[in-house]
Predict the structure.
Amino acid sequence: MNGLDNGISGSAAVSMAAWQTIGHDKAIGTLARGMEMGRMAHAWLLAGPPQVGKMTLALDLARLVNCTADEVKLQPCGECRQCRRISESLHADVRVISQGGGAGNRTTARTAIGVEQIREAQREAGLKPYEGRYRVFIIEDAENFTQEAANALLKMLEEPPDDVMFALLASEVRENSADESAGYIAYAPEHEQDRIAALLDAVPEVGGILPTILSRCQVLELRPLPIALVQSEIERRFELTPQDATEIARLSSGRLGWALQAGAEPQLLSERAERLDEIEAALRGGIDERFAYAERQAAAFGRDRSGVYQELQLWLGWWRDVLVIREGNEDLAVNLSRLDALRATAGGCDSAQVVDAIHAVQETTAMLESNVNPRLCLEGMMLRMPQTAAQTQSA
Ligand SMILES: [Zn+2]
């Protein structure tokens, strides 16, 4: 399809033509080997950062196990009725379960997957597949079940019907968790799972995937793709200037889904540009502007936590760019459309100041996750941002 896939080593080597997934060769190799040996797990956990390709791979899995093409068995053909129905989201046996999809959830900042959604899946799982070989349940945000829902799911995973398969999708983003180690559980390689599960047992109050669920899943870890692969994909699919393609690819941090969205929806980049404008204005401003900025963000935190975490990621990326420019590695900068402001700041402060600014943002993120007063954290961060000569002049 794109000539960039590295292929799979060993006996499960296949042409990747029919996979919708780009990259992630190791995960695809695991699925292909499972098919080749006739030993497919009934529950898979697809773990990786948001928009790295988990849903695409889950749909590939659904196509793989339902494909009716005669000759190829180690990959979905992409053309048979089963493959096409799944690609078009029309297949009656492939269900996507997402948070907030059930009735009766309390209105919280973030709704968990409720027990009703799992019970409904349970009822369906008891029936023979309607049109395919397997019923496939794709469960998004699998780190975010209610306790009741998790218990109901566990019951299904303990005795899965032969013709049912689960794909649980989980990202590394975990809210309200003070335990840093928890963020890595979803990424545990198979041989580490027992150890990690034991670790989780020791801290049962930590949110996220229950170790009992984890222990019943085969884990496919999806890491960010190489930036060059992301860039070639978006160049192939969209008409972009070379600078835009490079910037989007670098901004994506290897998450192809994000890059495709940015390519298809230019307003994503313009919204981002507006937020960066605000960040740069706060940096140029004096104490009043900086505190006003902190106050706005603190107020936003009450409504939209993830929006504020994203904003902090922008700060982090911005200072990281200043640092790489200071160190003479401008070709590693991500915010290519901001080079003038970045260079000016890089010229106006020393590396120690930049490193301290980066630490300030990281520490603020950690404090917010530990439920420290948002306004205090954010004000503290703004006080630590260097005031450079270049910024003062342009203010
Ligand atoms: Zn097919």
